[in-house]
Amino acid sequence: MAAAALITENFKFVSLFFKSKDVMIFNGLIALGTVAGQTAYNIFAFDCPCSSGRNYRYGLAAIGVPALVFFLIGIMINKSTWDLVTECLLRKCRKLSGAAAFALLGSIFGRAVVAPLTWVVISLLQGQAYTCALSEFIDPGTLEGFPSGQSSEVMAKFPCQQSVPAELHGFLAETERRLKYESQLIGWLLVAGMSVMVFLMQCVKRCCSPLSYQQEDYWSQYRNNENILFQRTAAVHARLLAAESVKSFFGFVALEKEEKELLADYQSARPICSTNWNRVTGVYLYREKNGLPLYSRLNKWATYSLENNMEAMEKEMDMLS
Fold first, then answer.
1. Which residues of 191-205 are buried (b: 16+ CB within 10 A; e: fewer)?
2. How far apart are CA 57 and CA 241, in angstroms?
3. Which of 3, 44, 93, 133 could serve as a FRET partner for 227 with CA atoms 20 to 30 Å apart?
């Protein structure tokens, strides 16, 4: 029983980082954008050098470098990345258990690999980069009727039909067909592997989640709505505070009609202390208080603020779960 409780407690962290509907839509849009980018690149930019030694480097770069760039961008635009950085800076990660760290990193990397994997898969299915990279490694002896004594330099020219000697044009179709077969086979195997991995992760998530499906869906909706309202309110707050500072300096502030209406509605904005910013920033995993769920750091901060229990707040806001 103790072991089962420990496993459930550790794996409950995983459920936080799989927000089904929003993540699927977002990832789908990323994948579609990547497909469009890959197609445009192949049409307008891809140009195999058709030179022994260069083909291999160029083909691998055409597949790997954009994938690496997409991966790094995915890491940077993920809010969880900066939550983890903030957690380590503010609280030295002392409350971050191994399971929580695994869940966080899994969320960050899982989100970041969508575009790179899509780029690699589409590159392999289209086959141009693979054909360019490996054409020089084809053994001429495996091509029936191919003239003997031909070097890899000649094979490297095959992706560029106009560079191939006239007597070898009859082997162009066979060479391209063979390389595209290999490329597409690897691409489909990669798709199959990705599908199995996603399926297994979803099974683990459903089995280990401490929440029912309905509550997990509600949690996802809450976090999404909280983020939208927080960002919208922060923008208004920053504008009001900036207007007050400018007015204090110049004696007046030049506002547009919409901004004047905001000032009329909200009058003023008070600065927020760094302590409170730090309390609502960082990693947060599911927690309950007296049987009632606390869905985020902001939700936890608001709950303890209403009780005006600063001692309990200091203790609780330092905890992840």
1. eeeeeeeeeeeeeeb
2. 54
3. 93
pLDDT digits (tens, 9 = 90+) for 172-230: 788 888 999 999 999 999 999 999 998 998 888 778 777 888 888 898 899 899 999 99
- Whose tokens are 């904005």? That residue is 269
Q: Which residue, among 82, 86, 88, has the nearest Cα to 107 in the 3D structure? A: 82
Q: How many residues does the chain have?
A: 321
- Contact (Cβ atoms closer than 8 angstroms) between residue 106 and residue 15: no
* Amino acid code (one letter) for 312: A
- For 117-130, write each residue's pLDDT tens digit: 989 998 999 888 89
The tokens of 140 are what?
A: 């001429």
Bridge partners, 288 (sequence order): 293
Record the tokens describing residue 172, joined without a space: 């162009």
Question: Quick check: 205 and 18 in contact, CB under 8 A?
Answer: yes
> What are the two backbone dihedrals, phi and then psi, of residue 114, each rounded to the nearest 5 degrees?
-60, -55
DSSP per-residue string spanning 8-47: HHHHHHHHHT--HHHHHHHHHHHHHHHHHHHHHHHHHT--
> Model pTM?
0.72
Among 26, 19, 28, 80, residue whose Cα is nearest residue 217 = 19
DSSP state of 166: G
Contacts 24+ apart (CB under 8 A), 309-318: 313/279, 316/289, 317/279, 318/91, 318/95
Q: Which residue has the tokens 């207007």?
A: 243
Contact 109, 24 (CB under 8 A): no
DSSP conformation class of 181: H
What are the angstrom distances between the C-alpha of 259 and each of 170, 245, 293?
Answer: 72, 15, 37
Among 69, 178, 189, smallest CA distance to 130 is for 178
